[in-house]
Prior knowledge:
Layout: H1 7-21, H2 54-80, H3 89-113, H4 124-134, H5 137-150, E1 157-163, E2 168-174, E3 184-191, H6 198-201, H7 205-215, H8 219-229
Antiparallel strand pairs: 1-2, 1-3
Helix pairs in contact: 1-2, 2-3, 5-7
Fe (ii) ion binds next to helix 2.
Amino acid sequence: xxxxxxxxxVLALTGAAAVAAAPASGAAQARPAAARFTxxxxxxxxxxxxxxxxxxxxxxxxxxxxSAVRKITxxxxxLAGADPASLPGYRLGGLKREQxxxxxxxxxxxxxxxxxxxxxxxxxxxAAAIExxxxxxxxxxxxxxxxxxxxxxxxxxxxxxxxxxxxxxxTQWAADHTMVSAGGRLLVALDMYEHAYQIDYGANAAGYxxxxxxxxxxxxxxxAFAQAQAIAAPT
Length: 235
Ligand SMILES: [Fe+2]
């Protein structure tokens, strides 16, 4: 698996480092530029996912997830080296918008790749919650799949989230990386950007969704759900 930084990433990081290293003109520029983001390896064998090829998974991981990691790293460095009070509003606003997009893309892709690995069903606790909140596992599967297929030809995400406020599960649609449910704990993430399936499925988004649902393992969702259960609803 290639995990190196491509030329565009090198240029982006080099540019950001230059900005971060620029002499500070005031105390407001003293914020340290900590490298908080690293590209995590795939948490599964990319040869082992039924219905999704190694070529597709590696491309998605290295080109799209990797790009998000490189982008958030560069943006964080640029923000750390800047004096926010001296930046034009449009420049600071643009950086903050791109920061959110790149940060969420990083986090959401890491959740997506945790959909794959050794087969594991929903835990008894999560299965019970799915049955309570959706009627049945079959009903949730049908809803989640249909929402994914509704994004065919467009782009976005589908999530299964735990709402801390309502103490219930929710299937959530998102048109881009920034549309996450407020107070929601992410359990399952389905990437519906074309780069997630085009290599294997072309324009057949529905075929990709069906393959994803067959390959989905619940290991991560079970752990995240168990952690979420320890958090009381906000007052
Ligand atoms: Fe993606």
